[in-house]
Design a protein that fits this description.
Blueprint (H helix, E strand, L loop, with lengths): L3 H23 L13 H27 L5 H25 L3 H32 L4 H27 L3
């Protein structure tokens, strides 16, 4: 069983990041907000690192779910926080308005983040199937979809990297 302290620390870290992202959207803006990026390469590298950390974290927690170290409800809570963080990053991409040479790379990475979000949603569905003790056939279908979404995310990241100017 995963230590409760480790789960609590993970949830707290994810909650703090989500809370600060949420504040950005709650505080009223006088004008349309535009996320200004002047160093497109470093920004994309930073988002990629955040994505890698979120991917590793959610993969570890999903493995813990599969191994019975955490409950489906604990996993769903962690996945919801991660989903909101990914959604915040997608919103940044929408408002960043990269220069022409960077647009295709940015669009591909934004698509990768959308696939990653779909991946997380499917893992939550799988957690609910475990919780409801669903039949193995349905669980196998969802698990295959999870693997396909993970692979598609990786391919879109590679595509983004190959399209960098």
């Amino acid at each position: 069983m995963a230590s409760k302290k480790g789960v609590v620390v993970t949830v707290i870290i994810l909650a703090v990041i989500t809370g600060s992202s949420f504040l950005f959207w709650v505080i009223p803006q006088e004008t349309e907000s535009i996320f200004v990026v002047s160093d497109y390469e470093n920004y994309l590298d930073g988002v990629k690192k955040i994505h890698e950390v979120l991917q590793e974290s959610i993969d570890d927690e999903f493995k813990n779910l599969l191994d019975g170290k955490i409950t489906p409800d604990e996993y769903i809570g962690i996945a919801e926080v991660t989903t909101s963080q990914v959604t915040a990053k997608i919103s940044e991409f929408v408002t960043s308005k990269p220069s022409e040479p960077w647009q295709e790379s940015y669009i591909s990475y934004m698509d990768a983040l959308k696939k990653f979000n779909s991946y997380i949603v499917e893992t939550k569905i799988y957690a609910n199937l475990i919780k409801d003790k669903s039949d193995q056939k349905e669980m196998t279908e969802i698990f295959q979809k999870i693997e396909r979404l993970r692979d598609e995310t990786k391919e879109l990241v590679k595509k983004s990297d190959s399209m960098r100017p």
